[in-house]
Every structure is written in structure tokens, then in C-alpha cells.
TrEMBL record:
InterPro entries listed in its UniProt record: Carboh/pur_kinase_PfkB_CS, PfkB_Carbo_kinase, PfkB_dom, Ribokinase-like
Gene Ontology MF annotations: kinase activity
Origin: domain of life: Bacteria
Annotated PANTHER family: CARBOHYDRATE KINASE PFKB DOMAIN-CONTAINING PROTEIN (PTHR43085:SF57), HEXOKINASE FAMILY MEMBER (PTHR43085)
The keyword Kinase is annotated on this UniProt entry: yes
Lineage: Bacteria, Pseudomonadati, Spirochaetota, Spirochaetia, Spirochaetales
Record has Kinase as a keyword: yes
Keywords: Kinase, Transferase
PROSITE patterns membership: PFKB_KINASES_2
Carbohydrate kinase PfkB domain location: 12-279
Organism: Candidatus Aphodenecus pullistercoris
Protein name in UniProt: Carbohydrate kinase
Protein family membership: Belongs to the carbohydrate kinase PfkB family.
């Protein structure tokens, strides 16, 4: 799989430590660990965190050809965990609010064929980054457009969601985001998914529901994967790992049910470990068949 991701790169700052994160980066990190390749369209500050981020991206094997340098500081989010569930506060403005590519970068990016473009709403909170995403959505040649709704605080609105939906072939959201998106479009929560598929042309809708597992809806029906009973360390990045594995196994030709079950296996593993992109052990690799 050859993936391109657009959006925020930030450090998740906990009591006593920090880890590199941001939903688009997390997805790419797992795609790399699963055997794929990927590049990120984002921006970093000309600062210590920016230099550390570039070192970490190189370690993860994530392409940096479309990574800009901003006058704003490298992004971070302070995270407080309550019963393993994260709450966020973001620095503003951050480098990823000012994602701007050169014409040469656009030319090289648009000349390639990608298996998937991954994006969300958070990086659209600033007009500059939103305009960059708009151009990507108009010109990138990709088989799938994966829209991870990923609502954070009040950094979203109908314009950002609509921009994401226009080209989306796969939409991912959690069960708490379903009624929010439904309200934006005047839909009932129980009819939103069918509306996305039948009226907006989305091929698949992924809905994660925490301990209740995850579902994938399509015109062919619905498949479900349960969560395993694991000791939760933290849930940061769990949904991103599920996204990555689902996309990876779909690209390998797996049926939707199998792709979702393997994706759930990875998410179960991630919630049992600290950080959004933990190292994979041999047992996990064996279970996933990688």
C-alpha cells in the first residue's frame, strides 16, 4: 500500500512524558509497520521539537518530501487521561495550521498514483491548511479517499465536514460523532449511515464504539468486530491503528469482515500499550499474518 496523509503532526504531552502523535501520522506509522509505505503532508516548526520530529519520522520510515517548515511552533497537545480515556488541549497556532507546499512539491505529489489519501477535520481549523487540503482533494490521484472525521473540541464545522465528504470513499467516525454529523446535515443519527452511502456515494462507513467494538457499513450490508478483553493502558491512537490495519488488509484483497477483525486485533494491542505507535511483538505479527 502507498499512502498519503494530510494533517496535524503533534506531540501528545502526558504527565511525565511525551510521545509523537497526530491522527494522520499515527495511521501512517501503523501502515509502515504493517509493510506499506507512506508520506505525510504537514508542517513543523523550526525548533527543537521539529528537529526531534524529523528524526522520529525518519525512524518510522515516513516520507518527508511534502513536509513544510513554519514560523509557528511544532504542534503539541496536552492530554489528561481519565480511566484511560484521553482529553485534549491543543497549542494554537501550531505549525500544522500553516501547511503550505511549493509548486514543485505539488507537481511531484500530483504526478504519483496513491492507494489512499488520509485526512480529517482538525487540520482544517486554519484557512491556510484548509486551502492546501482543498487543492489536494481536487488533484491527488488516489484509489481511496479516507475521511477520518476526528472531531476535536470546537475545531470543526459544516464547511470542514463537507470538504471532507466531497471526495470521501471511506468515512470513519466514532459513535459519539455520529449524532454530531447527523445534526450538521439535518439527518437522524439512525439514518446518517444510509444517507452517506445512498446519497453521498460513500462506499464504506467505519464506526468505532469503544469496548463495544467496531462496525463497517456498505451497500452490501454491515460487518462487526468485537473488542478483546485487555488491560487498558491508554486509548490514544487506537482508532488510528484500526484505520491503518483496515486499509492495509483491504488493499491486500481481504473481505471487509476479515479486514475489520484484523484491524480490531491491532487496536486491542495498542490500547494495552503506552503510546500511539508501540512496537509490535512477535505474537501480534503472527496473529496479523505480517
Amino acid at each position: 500500500m502507498k499512502a498519503l496523509a494530510f494533517g496535524e503532526i503533534l506531540w501528545d504531552v502526558f504527565d511525565g512524558g511525551r510521545t509523537l502523535g497526530g491522527a494522520p501520522l499515527n495511521v501512517l506509522g501503523h501502515i509502515r509497520k504493517l509493510g506499506g509505505e507512506g508520506s505525510i503532508v504537514s508542517a513543523l516548526g523550526d525548533d527543537e521539537l521539529g528537529a526531534l520530529t524529523r528524526f522520529r519520522l525518519e525512524d518510522l520510515g515516513i516520507g518527508m518530501d511534502y513536509l513544510a517548515t513554519s514560523d509557528c511552533p511544532t504542534g503539541y497537545a496536552r492530554i489528561q487521561l481519565v480511566d484511560g480515556v484521553p482529553g485534549y488541549s491543543f497549542c494554537t497556532p501550531a505549525a500544522w495550521d500553516r501547511i503550505r507546499l511549493t509548486e514543485d512539491q505539488y507537481d511531484r505529489l500530483f504526478a504519483q498514483d496513491w492507494d489512499v489519501l488520509i485526512y480529517g477535520t482538525l487540520a482544517q481549523r486554519d484557512g491556510q491548511s484548509a486551502a492546501t487540503l482543498e487543492r489536494l482533494l481536487s488533484c491527488v490521484k488516489a484509489t481511496e479517499f479516507f475521511f477520518d472525521v476526528n472531531l476535536r473540541l470546537d475545531y470543526y464545522g459544516l464547511e470542514a465536514v463537507e470538504r471532507g465528504l466531497k471526495k470521501a470513499t471511506i468515512v470513519k467516525m466514532n459513535d459519539e460523532e455520529v449524532p454530531v454529523i447527523a445534526s450538521l446535515y439535518g439527518q437522524r443519527p439512525d439514518s446518517l449511515i444510509s444517507w452517506l452511502i445512498e446519497e453521498r456515494g460513500v462506499s464504506k462507513v467505519l464506526v468505532t464504539s469503544g469496548k463495544r467494538g467496531s462496525d463497517c457499513y456498505s451497500a452490501e450490508g454491515c460487518c462487526h468486530a468485537d473488542c478483546a478483553k485487555v488491560r487498558v493502558v491508554d486509548t490514544v491512537g487506537a482508532g488510528d491503528s484500526l484505520s491503518a490495519a483496515f486499509l492495509h488488509f483491504l488493499s491486500k484483497g481481504c473481505p471487509c469482515q476479515e479486514a475489520l477483525e484484523r484491524a480490531s486485533m491491532l487496536a486491542d494491542y495498542v490500547v494495552g500499550h503506552a503510546g500511539a505507535i508501540p512496537d509490535y511483538d512477535d505474537e501480534l505479527r503472527r496473529k496479523l499474518g505480517i
